[in-house]
Amino acid sequence: MKRRELLLAAPALAWAPSWLQAQTAPAVVAGPGGYPNKPIRYVVPVVAGGGSDMVGRPVTERWGKLLGQTFVVDNQGGGGGVIASQNTARAPADGYTLMQGYVATHGTSPATRKLPYDAIRDFTPVAMIGATPNVLVVNASLPVTTVAEFVSYLKKNPGRVSYGSAGQGSLTHLTMELFKQQVNSFMVHIPYRGVALAFTDLIGGQTQAMFPGLAAAVPHIRSGRVRPLAVTGLKRHPQFKDVPTLEEAGFKGFDAQQWYGVVGPAGMPAPIVRHLNETLATVLRAPDLREKLSVEAIEPMVMSPEQFATFIERDIARWTALAKARNIQLDS
Fold it and tell me: Could you give the CA distance from residue 106 to residue 177 in angstroms, rounded to a whole number?
C-alpha cells in the first residue's frame, strides 16, 4: 500500500476497536422513570471470595451492562447472613439496594433460629439466580457404591456411622437429617465451623458421610477421596451424569438445593422489580454466564418475582417442618 493510502486509512483503523466493541456490547435496556440513574448497591452476605461472592460478581457485572449502571458489590459477612439481611431490610425501597439472598438467609436460618428480621415480610423477592444440588458423599473406603447399599450399611452398623456438616442448622445438616428421617436410621452428627473442616475429617475417616453442596465436593470427588452416591434436585447434574438423583433412588422431597437469588427491602415499586427481573432473566439466559457459573456448579433458574416469592415461602416451610420434627431449634 502506498504511503498516501496508509495515511488515509489510519483514522479508520484507529476507530476499528471502538466500532467492534459497540457492535458486541449489549444494548442498555431503559427502565421505568429513568431507573437506574445511579450505581446500585449489591449486598452479598459473605466475605469476599466466598461461594456467594463467586456467584454475585459475574452476575452483576453483566447485569450492570444491560441496565447501564454499575453494581457496587458490598460484602457483609457475619452472623450467617443476619447482618447483611438486617441492613438490606432497613434500606430505602427504591431499587438502589439489593441483596443476594440464599438458602441460609431465606431458608434454613428462618426455620431453625429466632432472627431479628422476617425473611418474608421484610423483603421484596426480585428474581432467582440459580442453584446447585447437594450431594450425598461417603469416605472412599466405605464399602458402599449406591444409596441402597449405604442404607443397608447403616442398619447393619447402628450408631457406628457419623456424618459431618458445615454447622448446626446449615443445609448440610438439615439435608442429612431429612435423609435420616426417610430411612429411619441413626447417624451421629458432627458439626464443624465450615465445610472445609468437615471435608478434612471425612477424607481422613473420622466421619463417614456428608451432604455438601456439589461445588464444594467436586475437587474431592474428582480426586477419588470421596464417593458420590446421589444428588438432590429434580434431575442429574450435567457435570456428573452418572450420579443418580435421590428421587431416582426412591426418596421423595429431595429437590432441595443450595440456591441464590436477589431480594430487596419490602415495598419496592412493582415496575422497578419487573424491570430488574426481566433484565436479569436476559443475563441468565446468556451461554457465557452459564459457563461462568458452572465453575460453582450453579444451574441458572429463571423465575418471575411471584414464582420466586412462592419458592422462598415453600423452602422456609419445608425446613421449618423438618426442624420441628427433628427438634432442631438453635439460638439466634
Answer: 19
Q: Which CATH architecture has domain 135-231?
A: 3-Layer(aba) Sandwich (3.40)
pLDDT (0 to 100) of residue 26: 59
Q: Counting beta carbons within 10 angstroms of the beta carbon of residue 309, is it exposed (0 to 12), middle (13 to 18) or buried (19 or more)?
A: middle
Secondary structure (DSSP) of 141-175: TSS--SHHHHHHHHHHSTT--EEEESSTTSHHHHH
Minimal CA–CA distance to 330: which of 174, 102, 132, 101?
A: 174
Q: Cβ distance 188 to 124 under 8 Å?
A: no
Read off the DSSP letter of residue 295. Answer: G
Tell me if the pTM is above 0.85.
Answer: yes
Residue 282 has pLDDT above 50, yes or no: yes
Q: Is the peptide bond prior to 158 cis by the omega test (within 30 degrees of 0)?
A: no
Q: What integer pLDDT is reported at residue 11 of this predicted model?
A: 44
**Does 3 score more than 90 pLDDT?**
no
Fold observed for domain 34-131+258-325: D-Maltodextrin-Binding Protein; domain 2 (3.40.190)
For the chain, the structural domain boundaries read 34-131+258-325, 135-231
Q: What is the pLDDT of residues 205-248, one digit of tens each?
A: 999 999 999 988 999 999 999 999 999 998 999 889 999 999 99
Q: Do domains 34-131+258-325 and 135-231 have the same CATH topology?
A: yes
pLDDT score of 20 more than 80: no
Give 103-155 as a DSSP string.
Answer: TIIIIIHHHHB--SS-TTTTEEEEEEEEEEEBEEEEETTSS--SHHHHHHHHH
SS3 301: coil
